[in-house]
Each structure stands twice: as structure tokens, then as C-alpha cells.
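1st attempt posting a full record on here, be nice pls
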Amino acid sequence: MQSIAVGDQSMPAVGLGLWKIDPANVAQAVYDAIESGYRHLDSAADYGNEAQVGEGIAKAIADGLCTREELWVTSKLWNTYHRPEHVAAACKKSLDDLGLEYFDLYLVHFPIALKYVDFADRYPPEWLYDLSAAEPRMASDAVPLSDTWGAMEGLVEQGLARQIGVCNYNTGLLHDLMSYARIRPAMLQIESHPYLTQDALIRTAQDYGMAVTAFSPLGASSYLELDMATQQESVLGERVIADIAQEYGVSVAQVVLRWGLQRNTAVIPKTGKPERLKENLDLSNFALSDAHMTAISALNKNRRFNDPGVFCADAFNTFHAIYD
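the predicted structure (as C-alpha cells):
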């Protein structure tokens, strides 16, 4: 299985993204993924299914499909836990839910600090602050990202996370982070697919020695059910990709995922279907030519599906942009 260097460790380059997998189905999906050969699981407190993900992991280990040491498990610090005094508790809560003693990688989910919501009041707290308000809104908290990062470094020193990193940062935030980090971030996780290539951001991260993981690597498919994309925006319908897939005798999804791997990024497609699990992992039997890589990259439209500047205003009554 192809892997990429993350700090001083090696991470499988294809993982299972666990966002939006129903808690009722995710334990079986995780078990099926591990049985199919996956060793990289990408989770988060905000996904609301970590306890069930833990059930799938525990069953797979108990049945001898893998050991804990063979798995790479990532989780993420939610926006409401950015104050330094809440970071370790949030990490430990996710570890407890997953039944694990450490994370291979723990990430700051968004460069967005929201007011603290206690575990006992609501978990996961999601985006809104006071659900009893006539018009519930997000409530920002004035926490410098440098303070949050200092507490993230403490997770490494406590043995709770072997590597730490960030999600959804732009180039300016990366430059700033590198100016104060004692423990350098090992990973940048961002949305990236042929409609959003993010070349400059990926190059910046890799020049700093950071690995890059592309979430939503197949583009619009993750957002159709949320009305954040239309079927007409699916990169999987592009003729150039269909022609390449036919030439290699693979699926259009495999072509797009292979494109991501050949950019030296990890990819974490989401699926709960066993046949798709195997297909998404089976990417080592072909390699795209330079001409094909260029043709796919030329599809870029800078189309971002996961944009807080759009969905926070639409869904949470609060405009909160993080991208220009």
C-alpha cells in the first residue's frame, strides 16, 4: 500500500473518511474497511460517530484483522475547544469514545474559535451556541491560534498524539504558524480535487515539510445531499476523465483518486459500500501519464464546496469567512 511521510512516521496514503457516515452504519463500515485492507481512518469529534467508529475498530482488532499499531487513526479538535484549558480534555474525550490510548495524528479542525460548550451540555456541540435563542447563531471566542497550537504541542508531550497538524488553513496562516511552532505541524488537511487544485497552498505546505491530505477528493459527491453542490458540478462526469478511465480500464473515481496520489497528497474518500471500499483502495495497478495529470489539473475552477463563508451564513445565521 502506498504511503506518505508524516513527520518521522509513515501514513497509508489512502484512508477512509468518516464524515457523514450514519452512526448506525459506521461500525460495520469501519470493520469492512479494515477487512478490505484499509489501515488509515480519518475521524473527528464533530462527525458525531466516534463511539461507533471505536466499536468497529475494537471488533476488527478482536477478530485479528489488525493490531492497533497497524492502524493510523486521525481525529480533530473542534472549534469550541480552542482555549488551551479545553484542548487536552477534547482530545481525551475523542480517545475515550474511540477506545484508544493515543492518536497517530490530531488536527485543528478549522481556524475558527467558538465559545466553549461543555460536554455535559451538548456533544458534539456543532456550530450553534445557544439553541434556545429565537435565532440561534455561532458565537466567536477571541482565542489566538497560537494559544491553541501551544496546547496542541502539549498533546505530543503527554503522549496523547504522535503527530499534530491543521485543517483548512490558508498560506498566510501556515506562514504565521511556522513562525511560532515549537513542534512543527506534520500535516495540512484541505479540500482538494480537480475543480479545486490548490497548487500554491499544497506547494507551500510541502515546502515546509508538511504532508498534505485531500478531503473530499472526489469533489461534489460529498455535498449533494447537503444541497451544497449539484450533480452538474460532479467532476466524475467530465469527459476527459471518462476517456482516461476507459484507456486504463478503471473507474472514473479511481482516476481522480490516482491523480490525488500522484500529486503526493493522501486521499480520504468516504463510502459505506463494500464494493466502493475495495475500488477506492485499488489504485496501485496503474499510473497516470504526465499528459493525463496535466489534463485533469486543467479542470480547475477554484470551486470550493466546503466554505464557511457560504455555509455558516446559510445554515447558522452567521457570516464567517476564512477564505478570500
